[in-house]
Amino acid sequence: MRRFTIFTATAGALVALLPLQAGPAAAAPATGTARACDPHLTGFSLPTPDLFTADEVTGTVQASCAPSEDIAVGLATGDRRVTVPPLAIVPAGRTTAAFPLKVREAPSDRFTTKVAARYGADLLAQPVTVSPGLKAFTLRPESDGVYVYGEISLWGLSPTGGTVVRLTSDSPLLNPPATKTVRPNVLGEDFRFAAERVTSPQKVHVTATVGTRTMTAEVTLVPSA
Fold first, then answer.
1. Contacts of 178 (CB under 8 A, 6+ apart)
2. Whole-model pTM?
3. What is the secondary structure of 113-132 as a DSSP string?
4. Considering all CA atoms of the chain, what is the largest pairwise distance in Å, rounded to the nearest integer?
């Protein structure tokens, strides 16, 4: 039988809805034998507290010991734009469980919220900051023989410090800078970078990444006039 607590977020607060459902009482251990596991929630983590729109990451909950039966840890967030499943199941005989966290694709400037896990009386929470992520990445279909032109668009205004976009190319004919920073307080940025000269048209793909989201665009390098 699974034991669980379910809770949700209301008006920015994480509120318990259901009390812990107690499992069957364990028989008293015989003298000299190990005491049965009585798990507590001791760990709750995300790979990073800094997220972006459209991010998909994996979080982890940890129990103090390996239970003899599955236990279900309640999960919740303080903002509907950040989603987690209602439960993370720690299987019998193990101490950890992974769960997915996703940031919805929706127009929004930077905001801060919390992600939390609860089992019984144990409540652990982690603040997260969500910045506008990559909404669109486009390149002009053809170079002008010297430069490639493109545009980066975000889901909201780039925050203080700007938004770093990682760039890679699948061809040595086009070497974009490793990163391009979108300036603060703008929704996007136009850019250009130099291409190698070619004697015949060559198709090249450039990939842009912000957080866990990656977008790819194609450009044809053409000989200069």
1. 166, 167, 168
2. 0.82
3. EEEEEEETTEEEEEEEEEE-
4. 91
CA distance to 84, 85, 99, 127, per residue, from 81 (Å) = 10, 13, 17, 14
| pLDDT tens figures, 19-73 | 343 333 333 344 444 457 899 999 999 999 999 999 999 999 999 999 999 999 9
Question: What is the rounded average pLDDT of the residues 89-107?
Answer: 97
Interatomic CA distance for residues 72 and 86, integer angstroms: 9
pLDDT digits (tens, 9 = 90+) for 12-29: 344 443 234 333 333 334
> What count of residues does the chain have?
225
Give pLDDT tens digits for 123-151. Answer: 999 999 999 999 999 999 999 989 999 99
Question: Which positions ≥6 away from 103 have C-beta within 8 Å?
Answer: 51, 52, 53, 54, 55, 56, 81, 82, 83, 130, 133
Assign 3-state DSSP to the chain and report helix, strand, coil percentages, each to 5: 0, 55, 45
pLDDT for position 2: 47
